[in-house]
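Recall the central idea of this unit: under ordinary conditions, the amino acid sequence of a chain determines the structure it adopts. In this exercise we apply that idea directly, starting from the sequence alone.
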Amino acid sequence: MKPMKRIAILSAALTVLVGLDGVYMMAAHYKPKDINSFNLSDGGTLMVAAVILLLVTVVSFFMAKKTGEADKGV
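Accordingly, the structure predicted from this sequence is:
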């Protein structure tokens, strides 16, 4: 398996896990008492991380597809 395809698959799995954890924390209204209201909650931070990971996943899938076409000579 090509390295870029491995990166794409692993980042997709990590995106799903981080996103689900963020959704759970947002639904549970988890926010520690020792922070002020200007900071994001833990769930919000995880949702931002999931969006960034989603961008990495999409880019790596496109790059894996492009390298696959280059290997085939298309």
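Helices lie at 3-27, 42-72.
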